[in-house]
Design a protein that fits this description.
Number of helices: 8
Number of strands: 13
Helix content: 25-40%
Strand order of the largest sheet: 7-6-5-8-9-10-11
Radius of gyration: 21 Å
Structural class: alpha/beta
Strand content: 25-35%
CATH class of the largest domain: Alpha Beta
Number of domains: 2
Order of helices and strands: EHEEHEEHEHEHEHEHEEHEE
Length: 279
Amino acid sequence: MDLIATLQCSDQPGIVHAMTSAVLACGGNIIENQQFTDEPTNTFVMRTRFETTQGIDAARKSLNEGLGKFSPSLHVRPTQSKPRALVLVTKESHCLRDLLYLLELGELPVEIPVVVSNHEDLRGLVESHGFNFIHLPVTAQTKAAHEAELLVLIQKHSIDFVVLARYMQVLSNEFCAALPGRIINIHHSFLPGFKGAKPYHQAHARGVKIIGATAHFVTANLDEGPIIEQDVAHVSHTSTPDDLIALGRDIERRVLAKAVKLYAQDRIFIVGERTVVFS
C-alpha cells in the first residue's frame, strides 16, 4: 500500500529519525520525503510518501506511537484516495472549466460531488460534464441561511475542502471559522492596490507592466489569507483593458488549478500567516 504522511510540530531533535524508524517498524519503505523548518515560528513540517505491506491501520499505529512524544499534527492517508471538493461559482466560467477539463484528463486528483452557484448561468456547463449542480440563491438578508445550507451540503457529501472558482460572494467570519485552512480562493493580484469594480480597467489606467493572480486560503480578513500559489505576465502600453482581462483569466485558471492540485496532494502547510508548499 502506498501512503502519504504529513506532520507538523515544534522543531526539535529526532523527528526525522523517529519518522524513518516508525515507517520501518510497519514494514515500510520511504519513496519520497520533504521537510522544512520555519525558523521564525520554530515550526517543523514534513511530507513522507512510503510503501508498506501491513496496511494503513498498522502504519497509523506505528507512526502515532513513534512520533507521539513530539505532539505533532499527524495525518496518514492512501496516496490514491482523492480529497472531495465543493466548488462554489457565480457566473464566470473560466476557472470552473479548467477544473472540469483537468478532471476529465485525469490530471486533478480530486472528486467534486457537487458544484453550487448563487446563479443558474453555469448549470448547463456543469451538468454537461456529468456533475451535480445546485442553485442556492443568496441575498444580504438570506446569507446566514445560505451558508447554513452550504455547511449541510459539506457534511452530507463528506467534503474535505471548498474551492471558490470566481465565487463573487464574501463569506462570513463564522463560515470561514468553521473551515479553517479548507477554503481556497482565487483573485487578481492587484489587491489591495486595485479594489472594487473593474480592477483591470483601473490597472490599465495606471499603466501597469505586470498583471497576475493569487490563490490563497480564505480567512476572516478579506483576500489576506495565507498565499498558496501566484503567477504573473508582462504587459505593455499596447495592451487594452480587454487584453488584460483575457490574460488575467488565463492566469487565474492556471493558478487556481495548481493550488487545488497542491492541496489534494497534501503539499501545503499553513505556518502562521503564510504557507510552506512542497513542489
